[in-house]
């Protein structure tokens, strides 16, 4: 079992953080612990992350120390759960004006742009958690051969639907925002719509596959 440590975050939250590495099994256990904590009466909110979980307490002044002990114990007792998941295909136009960093990623990785596209689109990714933006899914499963550092100078605006690589992860920007990931393509799929009953397209546990499109407008 991975070792974990608990600590206070600000005045109202407790964080449980796992030692590396990140693994699907540990993430599944985090999902299980999230479910259990959501039902605890002293908990206001639970925010699962990558190899960590943040718990916001209703009465932090009286519950903080007890919360640390309880969360640590519940982690040791927790079991991995595999939530009901969906398989979602995301059409992507790679390169050109849709993927302005594709050439740079290829050069960094010692591959051709076509090889980057082939490797990026041949993997079934798993949604580990949502964060950064509403609907932004952190995907596990990027091939080590495609790992590329973030841009030295982030862009002031990254268009919604941009597909990027940042270090050992890949993901899709749901909204236009500043960002430093290497943009290799773009999708027309909408990942976040606050008017929908389920506002985010992707949820933890879903599997994602990118499907290259030969034509389209960014």
Please state roughly what percent of the residues sit in beta strands, choosing from under 5%, 5-15%, 15-25%, 25-35%, 35-45% or over 45%.
25-35%
Sheet bearing the most strands, described? 7 strands, mixed
Strand order of the largest sheet: 7-6-13-5-12-9-10
Mean pLDDT, all residues: 89
What sort of overall outline do the alpha carbons produce when their principal axes are compared?
A: elongated
Structural class: alpha+beta
Give the beta-strand count.
13
The assembly state of the depicted protein chains is single chain
Radius of gyration: 19 Å
Number of helices: 4
> How far is the first residue's CA from the last residue's CA?
45 Å
Fraction of residues in helix:
10-25%
Pick out the low-confidence regions: none
Task: Please trace the helix and strand order, writing H or E for each element.
Answer: EEHEEHEHHEEEEEEEE
